[in-house]
Amino acid sequence: MNRFVKIVIRITMFLYKMKSINSLVHILLLNLAFFFFSCSRISVDVGPPIDLVVSEGFINPIGFYNAEPTFSWKLPVAGNIKSQSAYRLVVASKPELLPNKADFWDSGKVKSDQSVWVNYKGVPLDSRQKVYWKVMFWDQNNNTSEWSEVARFELGLLTNSEWNAEWIGLPSQKKLEKTKAGFYFHRPQYLRKEFRLTDEIEQARLYITAKGVFEAQLNGQKVGNDIMTPGWTPFKKRIETLTYDVTNQIATGDNAIGIILAEGWHSGRIAYERSHREPKPIMRALCQLEVKYVNGSIETIYSDDSWQGTRNGPIRFAGIYDGEEYDANLEMQGWSKPGFDENGWESVVQEVVNPEVNLVPKRHAPVRDKMELEAQKITLPEPDKLIFDFGQNMVGVPMINLPVRKGQVLKIRFAEMLQQNGKLYTDNYREARSTDYYIPKENGFITWKPKFTFHGFRYVELTGFDSDAIPDRSWVKGIVQYSDFEDAGEFSSSDEKLNRLQSNIKWGLRGNFFDIPTDCPQRDERMGWTGDAQVFAPTSILNCNVHAFWASWLQSMREEQLADGGIPIVIPSNRSYKPSAGWSDAATIIPWEIYMRTGDKSILEENYRMMKDWVTYYKLAFKSREEKLKPLGDWLQPLSKNPVDDKMGETSIELIETAYLAHSINMTYKTAKVLGYPADATNLKVLRDSVRHVFENEFFDINGRLVTDFETQTAYLMALAFELVSKEMAEKIVPHLLRTIHQVDDHLRTGFLGTPLLAPTLDKFGQADLMYKILFKETYPSWFYSINQGATTMWERWNSYSHTEGFGDAGMNSFNHYAYGAIGQWFYEGIAGIIPLEPGYKRILIAPTPGKQLVFANAEYNSVYGKIESNWKKRGLGLELEVTIPPNTKAEVVIPVKQRMNLLMDEEEFEDNSNVRMIDKSANKITLDVLPGKYNFKTLQR
Ligand code: BGC
Q: What is the DSSP letter of 830?
């Protein structure tokens, strides 16, 4: 109880005992005073912290991977809350123990403004543990907040020793079957077991995974809503496991569990060199269904050789590249329910859990159905061939709902583009067959969706439907699937094409974040190309909550790192390529980019060793380049005249290798400083500076001009973007960069590596106007050029298709390749000007860059502290700027002005106030120090 209340009660009691009339008046007065005091207390009461998450943004996870999590919360946006001065965090095994009997951890009052990434320091936690926590804070005036709501997490099975089950599946077929294209394949397997539960059930958890991909069913019902689990990790090192709360899917009495197994990434031809046609390892399932009875006892159903299996189920074939085939005649009604007749099923074989392969809970959200697209129109380019146009290139599967006839096979083909004659263009799928089949068992309407494949498409072609029926747009829906994260940012502007580009970038992200970051989602590739990933990572973080997604993929990268420190250029690594500059550097760049935008040091801690080892490899490889580094160059630079291979662009390979070596060392150096390794930092700095020295002296003359065979925009950009040259030299280089741009009529001539550097570099050197020009170019090569040719997502090449020239070389012609979407970073950080001055946006810079091509631009980004907004609009000669700064951060807002301009804040002439202070005013900008809140600034001509 508040001390003041106690005193009031005591005095009241005393006066009451005195029983004098006078005293009664006193009592009345005192109680009146107390009433007003309490009212005034209410008015300063502070709302509870909100949005409680653990580790990389998990909300109340089950089957959580991390026994040493971090805790994050947001301060409420209300009243006058500016910052946190202290917090108290309590963690317990039961919600009723919170706050004062917390048995796991009570942080006590910690005087700190840290509201994100607070390390757990309580008792060690074990597999299956349920953990409840809540938090309160003290604001800048030491007002206490209410307690937050209780958040929770439940750990999965953290180590192999928790697994008593065996891997199970049908024995390999004596003679493996081949697809028409000559690839071996494994037929999907159906596995089942019946079991009896004898008592009243309190809770049930299904721990499960597969070599291959699986769907589990309990008593005829699918478990969870995940797709293609467990996803793609380096299977020889780590297989992720899933945990499901299945309490409501089982009951006392007879039950049955079923598992469907398909090839997925583990056993399909994507697993290894795609050109190699030898059989892949067969699929296996592993599960433990742990049932806790109300009486406290536990019963576990394991995967073991008591299960039965068959290959004669309706899914005849399912492969990532090739599609799925379903024969409804083979449906097995009730196969995952108790009482099913197992006649014709065989016993499964069991294999022990290999201690070398870590079984760990999945550390980011699985792929799920995320959106449903309606067909925009249907066409019949040939009789009986019906094409559905979804108006948007997307990734996922079709949902079929249409009339069929027994005896006909429904064939479903996909394409990203149409040919001139209105038929599908599928050459660019290369050797991916990407076709689904449905064989009906009777006439009538069917509803069907493939389970174990995905396609990259805008168009769906149907043949074999009931041709007597009148085709309808509702027959096919596009189910958009990607790893289950939410949007983090939004950008829009007054320009329709720029908005289309933003949309294309987001669709590129949705289409290629399919459990791992892929280069493209449609052809016989769909792999984790590291170069594409590193250039797109910052843009992805600004658009979506992909922190956990990247952290997980970086774990795969650590596991795939070679003994000598080399980083494969595809992760998980299914190729034997050598490391490459600009690709393998994803190892140093992505952790740093994530750290800057989240402030989460654990991403640096986890990856520091890998970064250092990569630098060590690189340093040595650098000396014997050819043998240890695969040259990829400024991949797909347009109009390249490189005589060796035009795909590698014209920028000198040596220059790129030197630039990225220095850049990777620099990222590792900065990481060493953050993590507190001063000796490492000193060594890395010396090394970085020596490579910078080589760079400046080897590739430029004293006037800052390139001395390599080709003079390229990318080479100049690297020098400036990665700060590889002295200030004086940088000043000399800038005019050369500008010349290489002007001499091609302000067009870009950059590939995968150069393009992301254009905007930040030109902006940094005061050339934002030129960047706007390049961005708004309508002619080849440019972003808008692809849009003018009909792009609804990012293309692999600027001219993957053109109205005049048709399709590019089908060998490398993806219409969903996110790399050039890296420009999206500048929409947030340049045009809207939202930049983290300190990691995680603890200090924010809002410095918009209004270009003459735009009337307004709006951007918001949901940072770990809350929503940051920068919306600007031109008003006459002035500018209106709306800014939102979340609690517990600080901001510097830079407003562009012209001479003789006044500044208004919230419609009043600006004066320094408790929230905003002017710290600088020059001829062309005003700089303000801004505390959290929402503000409206206007500049007006005097
Ligand atoms: C991929 C690219 C990748 C490149 C490197 C291509 O096949 O699609 O995006 O980065 O190879 O060689």
A: I
Contact 521, 453 (CB under 8 A): no
**pLDDT computed for residue 339 by the predictor:** 97
Distance, in Å, from the CA atom of 736 to the CA atom of 755, rounded to the nearest integer, reads 17
Q: What pLDDT is recorded for position 811?
A: 86
Residues of the chain with pLDDT below 70 are: 1-44, 272-277, 625-626
Task: Give pLDDT, residue 575.
Answer: 74
Q: Are 883 and 520 in contact (CB under 8 A)?
A: no
635: Cβ below 6 Å to ligand 1? yes
Q: Whose CA is nearest to atom 9 of ligand 1?
A: 519
CA of 283 to the centre of ligand 1 (A): 28
Residue 939 C-alpha from the chain's centroid: 38
Measured by CA distance, the residue closest to atom 5 of ligand 1 is 632
Are 718 and 706 a contacting pair, CB within 8 Å?
no
Over the stretch 257-276, which tens digit does the pLDDT of each residue have?
999 999 999 999 887 655 55
CA of 529 to the centre of ligand 1 (A): 6
Helix-strand-coil split of the chain, %, nearest 5? 30, 30, 40
Question: In whole angstroms, what is the distance from residue 403 CA to residue 466 CA?
Answer: 5
Q: Whose CA is nearest to atom 3 of ligand 1?
A: 529
Angstrom distance (rounded) from CA 237 to CA 211: 12
What residues contact residue 798 under an 8 Å CB cut-off, 6+ apart? 638, 780, 781, 782, 783, 785, 786, 820
Phi and psi at residue 636, in whole multiples of 5°?
60, 30
Q: What is the pLDDT of residues 318-374, one digit of tens each?
A: 999 999 999 999 999 999 999 999 999 999 999 999 999 999 999 999 999 999 999
Which residue among 430, 516, 635 has the greatest number of ligand 1 atoms within 8 angstroms of its CB, and so is best to mutate? 635
Query: In angstroms, what CA-CA distances link 647 with 583, 655, 797?
Result: 15, 17, 10
This prediction has a pTM of: 0.94
Strand duo 925-930 + 834-836: pairing = unpaired
Q: Which amino acid is at 27?
A: I
Query: Up-side HSE of residue 411: CA atoms within 13 Å toward CB?
Result: 11
